[in-house]
Amino acid sequence: MTATTLVKEKGASPPPPAALADRARRMRRRGRAVALLFVFPALLLLGALVVYPVLFSVGRSFFDASGDRFVGGANYAEMFRDPATVKAVRNTAIWVVVAPSLLTGLGLILAVLVEKVRWATAFKLLLFMPMAVSFLAAGIIFRLAYDEDPDKGVLNAAVVSVHDAFKGTSAYPTARARPGQGLTQGRDGSYTTGTGVSPGSTVTLPMVGVLPKDLPRGAAPALPAAGRRAAAGELRGVAYLDFTPGGSGRPGKVDRRESGLPGMKVEAVRDGRTVASTTTAADGSFRLPGLDSGSYALRLPASNFAAPYQGVSWLGPTLVTPAIIGAYLWIWTGFAMVLIGAGLATLPRDALEAARMDGANEWQIFRRITVPLLAPVLTVVFVTLVINVMKVFDLVYVIAPGPVQEDATVLATQMWLVSFGGGNNQGLGSALGVLLLLLVIPAMVFNVRRFRRSQR
Questions:
Q1: Burial (Cβ within 10 Å: 0-12, 13-18, ≥19) of residue 274
Q2: Residue 367 has what DSSP assignment?
Q3: CA diameter of the chain
Q4: Residues 6 or more apart from 275 whose CB is under 8 A from it?
Q5: Beta 183-185 vs 285-288: how paired, if at all?
Q6: Is the dihedral of CA 249, 254, 259, 262 positive or negative?
Q7: pLDDT confidence band for 7 (50 / 70 / 90)
Q8: What would the pLDDT profile of 337-350 be if each residue is shown by its tens digit?
Q9: What is the mean pLDDT of residues 44-50?
Q10: Is the Cβ–Cβ distance between 173 and 206 less than 8 Å?
Q11: Which tens digits make up the pLDDT trace of 247-266?
Q12: In 10 A of CB 388, how many CB atoms?
């Protein structure tokens, strides 16, 4: 029953249309006022935490470091004259191109593969767990993992283990010949006897510079080996540590308490050519049989004294940016996989089954059906990651050591360094902040439009 009918039943005249319209306007104004009252705290926080800092930074970018003198666009011109800022722009471009592309590709591959795993939920949880780690904590973890010392850095420990398994390593990187005992060092680090030796001779090769505790396991006393005589047509000798604990030994002579140097390579050289080679035994003894008569030189190759392989300089100037991007991938791969997996779950299964019935293999289905249908989701993930990598700060600041900080710097870290990290130039730092904002806005607008289109 309408209000007009009630009015007629009571015998009163209905209100004029103008009064009804005025009442409706008052109710709409009251509704707007109530809505504004509820929204006002959020608007206040948004203005205080976002709008005001943005406007203040824009205004501050037109003043000098002290903030007292107006310099116009000088700070913006200085940005592209400063080599450090140019390098930050270049590194940011590398981040924007490489990191989102790799993450989107990895997320897509993992999302497709996870569907075929029995424990898919547990696998997703495992990959998503790094998202719960703060960037500061992740930076500390990877700073330790990338440490150049194989005893500390897990990556270099693995690299050194693989390298040594295939190429081996020197047991005597600190060893050197005893001066004045007939061994001459070559330019390549090898040691050669200064005078020629003939088959049937026994030669002693005294070495120093090796701590007794660093001797290989199983090293035996060298004295018994020094007394062995060489047969005709062979050279015998002993390579030993010419050092007696307590200092009671004689230089150049094998004493009772001196140890042989096992595993050392010895070569017989004639006319500049190696004609025979062998490796010393546990007591340092070696034997080179089957030699023709004549004069030979004995050589200890440089490989005996090569410094141990120390792995890869992950945080050096060349690899520091890829290394930090690797840490970023570890954190965000789960995020990309979960979002793309959600899009994958909404795909029409009948299209996939129809393609299989038509004889398409899994690669063709993935390339021609799955990826095109997921294109909107992939685009949103990619653009979201682009916005995120433009603002990356914690990982770069924590992982990159001080000497290579400038080689790894991006716009966010450069803005902080210029403003507060020693530069004390808030004018130039504000200009960098405005530049970063201008770079992020197009990606944000694109993402908002995509969301609106998807809602419609």
A1: exposed
A2: I
A3: 144
A4: 268, 269, 291, 296
A5: unpaired
A6: positive
A7: very low
A8: 989 988 888 888 88
A9: 88
A10: no
A11: 677 888 888 889 999 999 99
A12: 18
Long-range contacts of the stretch 388-393 (C-beta < 8 A, 24+): 388/332, 389/92, 389/95, 389/96, 389/99, 389/100, 389/328, 390/92, 390/95, 390/96, 390/436, 390/439, 390/440, 390/443, 391/436, 391/440, 392/95, 392/328, 393/135
CB 197 within 8 A of CB 297: yes
Give dist(CA 309, CA 157) in Å, integer. Answer: 10
Rounded to an integer, the average pLDDT of 302-323 is: 88
Tokens of 152: 């500390």
Whether the Cβ atoms of residue 350 and residue 149 lie closer than 8 Å to each other: no
Handedness of CA 147, 152, 155, 160 (dihedral sign): positive
How far is 105 from 128, CA to CA, in rounded Å?
16
Residue 154 and residue 145 in contact, taking contact as beta carbons nearer than 8 Å:
yes
**Which of 36-45, 58-67, 163-172, 222-231 bottoms out in mean pLDDT, i.e. has the lowest?**
163-172
Single-letter amino acid code for the residue at 442:
P
Provide the pLDDT confidence category of residue 403 given band limits of 50, 70 and 90.
confident
Name the β-bridge partners of 273: 270
Residue 200: partners with Cβ closer than 8 Å, 6 or more residues away = 230, 231, 232, 233, 234, 235
* Residue 183 β-bridge partners: 193
Order across the sheet with 265-270: list the strands: 183-185, 191-193, 297-300, 265-270, 273-279
pLDDT at position 97: 92
Cα distances (Å, whole numbers) of residue 129 to 112, 179, 219, 331: 19, 60, 50, 8
Give the lowest-confidence range in 68-77, 144-153, 355-364: 355-364
